[in-house]
């Protein structure tokens, strides 16, 4: 499957049973504290804007639209919108996964 095909599969309306999806949007300049447990087992696609990921050690990396991430594999401390437009992520994972920091998804994000 090509990168475009994988991206489209994650965004499709009819996800297979047992897969959950939610979306996260951050306005320019907003930082959202987080941790790796919140993202365990999830694939994250940057849909719009520039995502900056800050790790516990202080290092940062920026990601552009179309980038696919596994944030649960990183010692992530915060997500930040470092661009000048709204940053949007689409997140998918198995619905039956359990996480220490939350029951199903980050508070305030929408499912679809």
- The arrangement of helices and strands along the chain is HEEEEEEEEE
Low-confidence stretches: 98-112
* Biggest pleated sheet: 5 strands, antiparallel
**Which structural category fits the helices and strands?**
mainly beta
Average predicted local confidence, pLDDT:
82
The global form is globular
Strand content: 35-45%
Q: How many beta-strand runs?
A: 9
- Spatial separation of the terminal alpha carbons: 23 Å
How many helix segments?
A: 1
Q: What oligomeric assembly is this protein in?
A: single chain
Q: If you had to describe this structure to a student in words, what would you say it looks like?
A:
- The structure is a single chain.
- The protein has 112 residues and is mainly beta.
- It is 8% helix and 39% strand.
- It has one helix and nine strands, in the order αβββββββββ.
- The strands form two sheets. The protein has a five-stranded antiparallel sheet, covered by helices on one side.
- The radius of gyration is 13 Å and the shape is globular.
Secondary structure elements and pairings:
Blueprint: H1 3-11, E1 19-26, E2 31-33, E3 43-48, E4 51-55, E5 60-63, E6 68-69, E7 76-81, E8 87-94, E9 110-111
Antiparallel strand pairs: 1-8, 1-9, 2-7, 3-6, 3-8, 4-5, 4-7
Protein traits:
112 residues, five-stranded antiparallel beta sheet, four-stranded antiparallel beta sheet, 9 strands, 39% strand
Task: Provide a short characterization of the protein structure.
The protein is mostly beta strands.
